[in-house]
Amino acid sequence: MKILLADDHALFRAGLASLLRAWGLQVVGEAGDGREAIAKARQLRPDVVFMDIKMPTANGLEATRAIKAEFPDLKVVILTVSDDEQDLFEAIKSGAEGYLLKNLREEEFAELVGRLSRGEPTMSPALARKLLREFARLKTAERPSTADADLTDREREVLELVAGGATNREIAARLFISENTVNFHMKNILSKLHLRNRAEVVAWALHHGFTPRSGE
Fold first, then answer.
1. pLDDT digit string (tens) for 88-110?
2. pLDDT digit string (tens) for 8-24?
3. How far apart are CA 47 and CA 2, in angstroms?
4. How high is the pLDDT of residue 147?
5. Rounded to an integer, what distance in angstroms lies between the CA atom of residue 94 and that of residue 40?
6. pTM for the whole thing?
7. Radius of gyration for the alpha carbons in the chain, expressed in angstroms and rounded
8. Which domains does the chain have, with CATH numbers?
9. Beta-carbon contacts of residue 17 (< 8 Å; ≥ 6 apart)
């Protein structure tokens, strides 16, 4: 996994790069502001960008929108000190696949980076709860028809589990299918609903009345 680091604090970038390389990951470049992050994303074509929000010239949210517009498959994960709900919601709306706080412990960060490499949600539980509460607030009183999306029964089952915050591994176990099959269903769901990432799938599912499944 090739990683680009975008943060205006050089010492933080150096420490993060050292940590990621110690875990066997490839840090291909660094950027000190939003404009440089956009330029480096074009030049280096990383798989993931860890993006700070508060940066000069262009902030992390602006840079995220620009990068995702040009490279939809490139994953952007916000890594910031801000736990402000508005920043969190705007990051997801901008296309970020994750939102992490810089006060994470090393082992927590390692687990979340591992999830990222498996295509799973990359967000601390507290922030995920905030996000789910906001999406639940927007939920309609009655589930509109999803016929236009042409979702299969299995895809609807996956949607319900995704809405509840289940990982691909947990969905596979609950539905007695492989993780590869879950990935296949997720790609179909993204395509049929014209969504960009898992966070948008959760938002769509809750907004359209898909009740999160409780554990069995």
1. 888 888 888 889 999 888 988 99
2. 999 999 999 999 999 99
3. 5
4. 46
5. 19
6. 0.66
7. 17
8. 2-123 (3.40.50.2300), 138-207 (1.10.10.10)
9. 5, 27, 30
